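Progress report, Aim 2. The chain analyzed during this reporting quarter is listed below.
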Amino acid sequence: MTTQTTFVTTMNALREFHKASCDHTPGARRQVLAKPVYPTVSALTSLTPEEAAAVEGLKEDSQRNGAVNTNEIQNQITADTERFKESGGGDAASEEFRKRMEEKRAAQKESSNKMIDDMFDKAIDIGEKYPATQGAILSVSDQIMAFFSKLYNEIYFWVSNIVEQFVEWVKNALENIKNTARRIVDWISNWFK
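Predicted structure tokens for the chain:
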């Protein structure tokens, strides 16, 4: 196997490992993937300014994509929450809110997989164009993908908590409304007794 083939094969194995670590599909039978141990396909040599800039660009792209993705999901959740507040609540509105949050989780998984694929494709292209960068790319790509995996997991659990807390809040709010109304009705009926 050539160094080039080893590099691409290792990068694709890392891609699958990181995508699998983002799978929280309810009821999914997850295959536990072992994180690939990669050989040093090229020594971490001094890179030319152009090569170093290409590797650094991978980090910058990942940070930018992560920030954009997080802002988008925050704006969507805020809009859905406002929509719910404006609807006046109720069972149908609560169910619609929950449905939208579930859709956000599914969309986030797709978005995360796309970001991982895009970053790995870009990293492989750079490694093929500049073979001296392959060792650095393997190291940086593993860090970047760990970042995307963690980002996805943070957003996934953030949305999950919103759904759980929202449902609990609605349940408690409705129960509190019923109990308060019942106490007031009891108080009114006992006023003159």
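The first helix runs from residue 3 to 20. Confidence is low (pLDDT under 50) at residues 26-33, 39-44. These observations will guide the mutagenesis work planned for the next reporting period.
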